[in-house]
Each structure stands twice: as structure tokens, then as C-alpha cells.
Amino acid sequence: MDCTGAVLTLLLFILAIMFLLKKGSSWNNNSHNLPPGPRTIPILGNLHMMDLKKPFKTMIEWSKEYGPIFRIKLGCQEMVVLTGYETVKEALVNQAEAFGERASVPIFEHVVKGFGLVFAHGENWKVMRRFTLSTLREYGMGKRTIEDKITEECSILMKTIETYAEKSFDITTILTAAVSNIIVSILLGKRYEYEDATFIQLLKINSENIRLSGSPVILLYNLFPKLGFLLATPKLMIKNQNKLHEFIQSILKEYFQDLDENDQRNLIESFLVRQREKNMIKKGGYFCNENLMGLVDDLFGAGTETIANTLCWAIFLMMKYPEIQNKVQEEIAKEIGDHQPRTDFRAKMPYTDAVIHEIQRFADIVPTNLPHATTMDVTFKGFFIPKGMFILPLLTSVLHDESQWEKPHEFYPEHFLDSEGKFVKRDAFMPFSAGRRICAGENLAKMELFLFFTSLLQKFTFQPPPGIFKDDLDLTPVVGLTFIPMPYKTCAVLR
After folding, report:
1. Verdict on whether the full-model pTM lies above 0.85
2. Beta-ladder partners of 483
3. What is the structure's pLDDT at 111?
């Protein structure tokens, strides 16, 4: 049994009995001007006050009382929470060096052990990020070559959707597979059929681990990792990760055998060539197999889940707001017609571009952001924050900042349009985060979202299944590490 109310009560009871008080607080309240925050209690800190299913909501409420910068303690973990566009931008962009480290999170330290990109630290992260950015560009990010792959995948997806003959179906699986094939083509130099059993299993593992990593159980594990033996969820995450690593290792064996240094066809081969060039196969080198597995794992996960979730939201929102869907289709008919959508059309399609941006803002895919850490002692907006402090820049507070958005809690494409209907950029649009840790695949994601979205709405009109009305569609998300829409079915009506 996992984290039911009874288990949570038992855990808290064990904590109280064991009196797991660690070292004293790193904050010296008498010598520093610290951010304010709610009063803590021994062992739990502020955990007893927190909504474990939606911790960001509790933090938003605290920001109203303590301001945009406040400190809290969850179990033994002290942290500073940053809210609102101005505060988050100041930290991640204007003071990027000071706030640019990745915080140490027990479940991810256990699963990825600091390898790869997303949860890497220090110089290892710098080397892996440079390699990732240069290699993504080498294999077409932002160029015609990757655009051709996306449009080809769009065509395959459209033909697959047509087979449902306007009957209601769950679009999530095939949409996720289509999106995943883009990053897979960069990583492996190939694509998978949507019904491929191995591919489907990998997608399920990836989705499950992302969902579990934002669960209350994992929150408790991260705060009290020594009690992990009582929890099944961390063990399931590790089991899933091992399955994914077994698959990656089997792929690596093939590339080791057939590697041609003069003909690199994908990111894995480029990494292996760098490994040979640098002679860094030895333990401790940055281009080691552990980093390669971590990098493939990170790019597969991030390059699949966030874009696929955004497109799932897109279909759901078009069903919810058919008048907006109609306006997008009118613009597609005017500017694209029957041609294959290409990114060149985007500049002529301000309304469609605005709708895509608003989908990203409203969907709020990663509400809490991934945690940062300070690389030095820093005075930030008059407050002292010590080196190594866990920093949580809440993206949801930026994407719904009432000082930045006219209707922050509504789906309103006009956020990105001026009075003449021209597209306008908004500084508070930060779905990919910002600063040094901004998503490495941002440009690829933008291209995918435009091409998949316009291709889908060029070919189909999406409607709720018979008997379901738009007012019945619930916009409440399923909460994990990412936000996804409630499970739904759609009817894709040929245009």
C-alpha cells in the first residue's frame, strides 16, 4: 500500500517517534536579513500546512501574505520560493550565474546520479549542455532538415487519424508517439510505428515516471529519503528507469559495433565519436557511457512529454472553444490553403501563433519549474540567500501573473495580439523557463508545435464525442510533475 491517508499518518507518526532532527538550520536569523515566511514546527517545518497534491497552490497563497520572495521549510529541506514575473526574471535572467545551479533532489539523484543534462551539476552540466546544443543544431534544430522530418511525421499522423472515420477515440497515444518520433530521429536516426510494442512501452514508462515524480509520495520521499524503504513509488520509478536504461544499453551495443567516425547519423553516434576523440571512456570523463545514457533519457523524456501534453491540451481547448478553432482554420485556409504547413507561414498567421502561445501559457505544463540552487551567497532584492540554497522559481506564478496578463486565469489568445491583430511577444511568456537552465530544445519545440497544430486543424475539426457538450469539458488538469488534461476522447471530422 502506498501513500493513502493511513500511510501518511503512519509516516508522520514514525517521524515524530524517531525525532529525525538533522543539523541545525543553515540560516542564522540573528546575523542576516532573511526572506520572511510562515512559522515552522520541528520535524515537519511547514509540511503540515502544505497541499501535498498541489503544493504550488499553497505557495501562491503564501506569496500573497509574505511577498514574492519567501522562505519555507518542508521537513528538513529549506528553500526560497520566487513568485511573479519580475522576481523570477531578476533571478534567472539578470542574476543567472548566482541562481544557475540545479538543486539536489533525492529521487533524481538516486535515479540519474547527476549524469545527463537536466539534473546534472557544475562542469558536467556545462559540458553536456554545450554538446547537446551544438548536436541538436547539427541534426537540424531550427533548420529545414528537421522541418522535413516533422512534416513527414505530420502526414503519417493525419493518415492514422483518418482511420478512425470520425468515430470518437483517445488521441493521446498516437499524438505522443508522433511527437516522440521527432526526438527519436535525432537520438537514434530512425522512427517507430505507432503500434510498435517496444515503443509504446517506452512511452508508458516515460509518462508514468513523470507523473509519479510529482506525486505526494515522491514529495515525502524527497523530504525524508531515509524512509524510502516504506514507500513503493520510488521503487517503481527506479524499476521503470532501469527498463529504459536496458533499452538504451541494447541500442548502444549496436552503435558500438557499427560506428563510423566519418559518417555520424545521430546524436548517440556523435557522442561516441567525441568519447573516442577525447579518450574519456575512463571513469571520471564527461563523455562516459553514464552521461550518454542520462542524456538520451533526458532528451527522450523532455522531447516527448511536454510537447505531446501541450498538443493534447491544444485539441482539448479547440473542442472547448470551437469559435477559436474556427478562426484558426479560417487563417489556415487563407494563408496555407491546401499546401503542406511550413514554418515560413507563421509570420503571416498572427492569430494562429497567438493561439499556440496562449495554449502554452494556459496549459502551464510545468507549474513549479524544476528547482534551482544558488552558486554563491547572494543579496537578492534586499534579502540574504546563502550558497547552495534550494530555489523554487514558480513558473505558474509568471504565466498567471495578474500584473502581466489581462485575463490570467482564462484562455484568451488576445494576450498575444495588439489592437490591429498583429502578434506581439510578451516578456512574461516563460513556459520553457529562462536563464542558464532554459529548455535546450526550445526552438525545436516551437517548430513542432506550429507544424503539428496547423496540420491537425488544416485537416480536421475536433469535436466532443456524441452526447458530450463543450460546457461538459472540465479544464481541471491532472497534476503530476507536469499538468495534463483530464482523459478525454475526441472526434476528428474531416474538413
Report:
1. yes
2. 479
3. 86
Which segments of 99-171 does DSSP mark as H helices, in order? 106-112, 122-138, 144-162
Q: Are 490 and 168 in contact, with CB atoms under 8 Å apart?
A: yes
The pLDDT of residue 218 is above 80:
yes
Which residues are CB-neighbours of 159 under 8 A, at least 6 positions away?
none
Q: How far apart are CA 186 and CA 135, in angstroms?
A: 9
Whether pLDDT at 173 is above 70: yes
C-alpha cell at 81: 520560493
Dihedral (Cα; 214, 216, 222, 224), 10-degree rounding = 180
State the average pLDDT for the chain: 90
3-state secondary structure of 483: strand
Q: Are 354 and 362 in contact (CB under 8 A)?
A: no
Residue 401: partners with Cβ closer than 8 Å, 6 or more residues away: 84, 85, 408, 428
Residue 433, number of CB atoms within 10 A of its CB: 19
Using CA atoms, how far apart are residues 147 and 149, in angstroms rounded to an integer? Answer: 5
Helix axes 197-213, 172-188, angle to 10 degrees: 100
The per-residue pLDDT for range 319-362, each reduced to its tens digit, is 999 999 999 999 999 999 999 999 999 999 999 999 999 999 99
- Close Cβ partners of 166 (under 8 Å, ≥ 6 residues apart): 491, 492, 493, 494
What's the grid cell of residue 134? 551544438
Q: Distance between CA 110 and CA 426 in Å, rounded?
A: 38
How crowded is residue 176: how many other Cβ atoms within 10 Å of its Cβ?
23
C-alpha gyration radius of the chain: 23
Residues 6+ apart with CB under 8 A from 64: none
Contact (CB, 8 A) for 225 and 235: no
**Which of 22-26, 89-93, 277-281, 349-353 is least confident?**
22-26
114: CB partners within 8 A, 6+ apart: 120, 121, 124
Measure the CA–CA gap between 443 and 242, rounded to whole angstroms. 30
Picking from 454, 418, 441, the residue whose alpha carbon sits closest to that of residue 344 is: 454
Give the number of C-alpha atoms closer than 13 A to the C-alpha of residue 169, restricted to the C-beta side. 15
What single-letter DSSP state applies at residue 92?
A: I
Q: Report the phi/psi class of residue 114: left, alpha or beta, with left for phi > 0 and alpha for psi in -120 to 50.
A: left
Which distant-in-sequence residues (6+ apart) come within 8 Å of 152 by Cβ?
Answer: none
- pLDDT digits over 284-328, tens only? 589 998 999 999 999 999 999 999 999 999 999 999 999 999 999
In sequence order, what are the residues at sequence separation of 6 or more whose Cβ sits closer than 8 angstroms to the Cβ of residue 382?
33
Helices and strands (H and E) in the chain: how many? 16, 11
Instruction: Please choose, from the candidates 485, 483, 353, 354, the residue with its C-alpha nearest in 3D space to the C-alpha of residue 412.
Output: 354
* Cα–Cα distance for residue pair 202/244, rounded to 1 Å: 7
Which amino acid is residue 183, in one-letter code? I
| Burial tier of 48 (Cβ tally within 10 Å: 0-12, 13-18, 19+) | exposed
